[in-house]
Amino acid sequence: MPGAGSNRVRGIGLAGMRAIMAIIRRYLAGEVPLKRVFFHDMLLVGTLVNVVTGLASLAAFSLDVPDWAALLVFLSPQPYNIGLCIAVWRSAGRELSRWSDMARIGTLIWFPIMFII
């Protein structure tokens, strides 16, 4: 059992937290390849996260869960969506090509659609 002076955060060690923060920094700095961020992280994973939370919020509304809780579920992926859009935009800035402009346009289309879902 961890003691009071332990370097553990809810089962993830301090080294694990630092590794997660390093990954987030790489994404937000645009250091991850554009194709990975756009196709895998945004279109595949991001869309899946939004569909699942959208369905969960619909279920919460239909099960008479308090409206604030259902709304919280609905809005929960928005920080992730914003982070993905920043990552795509910055990765596109590092990989200047016609493809980078298309990825930026795709992000501008994807974000409002995911907000609705």
Plain-language structure description:
The protein has 117 residues and is mainly α. It has one domain. The protein is 76% helix and 3% strand. It has a two-stranded antiparallel sheet with strand order 1-2. β1 and β2 form a beta hairpin. α2 runs parallel beside α5. The protein starts with 7 loop residues before the first strand and ends with a helix. The model has no long low-confidence stretch (mean pLDDT 89).
In short:
The chain has one domain (8-116). It has 5 helices and 2 strands. The chain has helices at 14-28, 34-62, 67-75, 78-94, 98-116, and strands at residues 8-9, 12-13.
Structural features:
117 residues; two-stranded antiparallel ribbon; 76% helix
User: What low-confidence regions span 5 or more consecutive residues with pLDDT below 50?
Assistant: none
The number of domains: 1
Structural class: mainly alpha
User: Rg, please?
Assistant: 18 Å
Number of helices: 5
Number of extended strands: 2
Query: First CA to last CA: what distance?
Result: 42 Å
User: Biggest sheet: strands side by side, in what order?
Assistant: 1-2
Helix content: over 70%
Globally, the shape reads flat
- Largest sheet, described in full? 2 strands, antiparallel
Mean of the pLDDT scores? Answer: 89
**Approximate strand percentage:** under 5%
Order of helices and strands: EEHHHHH
